[in-house]
Structure to design on (125 residues):
């Protein structure tokens, strides 16, 4: 995996400590994702990093089919977080085909290929 720089580095360092941080514009108050140095809403450079609530809902979902010897089927989804940003990820802990649109999920820091990543699990309701 390439070494992160700039805003990506802040995000990756937080993940390495088990924390999910999101960039938030100090001027307009909007969150954004993916990390960048300018607010995509108002173009301000005044960006702070805030802990994500971790609460979200599945916006889109699909199942990627693979042979069992290659790891089997897995889910890929777009999750909209409570803060209004969307992240592409996976929902873990249930069968890939059981992930449905509008399902409540909770974010956690997991691992893929030796690096920390944001994953989701079904929310406990």
């Amino acid at each position: 995996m390439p070494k992160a720089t700039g805003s990506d580095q802040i995000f990756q360092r937080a993940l390495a400590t088990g924390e999910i941080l999101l960039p938030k514009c100090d001027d307009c108050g909007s969150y954004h994702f993916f990390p960048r140095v300018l607010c995509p809403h108002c173009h301000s450079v005044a960006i702070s990093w805030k802990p994500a609530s971790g609460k979200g809902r599945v916006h889109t979902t699909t199942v990627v089919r693979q042979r069992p010897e290659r790891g089997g089927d897995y889910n890929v989804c777009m999750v909209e977080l409570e803060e209004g940003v969307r992240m592409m990820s996976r929902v873990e802990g249930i069968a890939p085909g059981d992930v449905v649109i509008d399902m409540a999920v909770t974010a956690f820091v997991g691992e893929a290929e030796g690096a920390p990543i944001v994953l989701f699990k079904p929310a406990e309701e």
Notes: The beta strands are 21-25, 47-51, 55-64, 74-81, 86-89, 104-112, 115-122. The helical segments are 6-16.
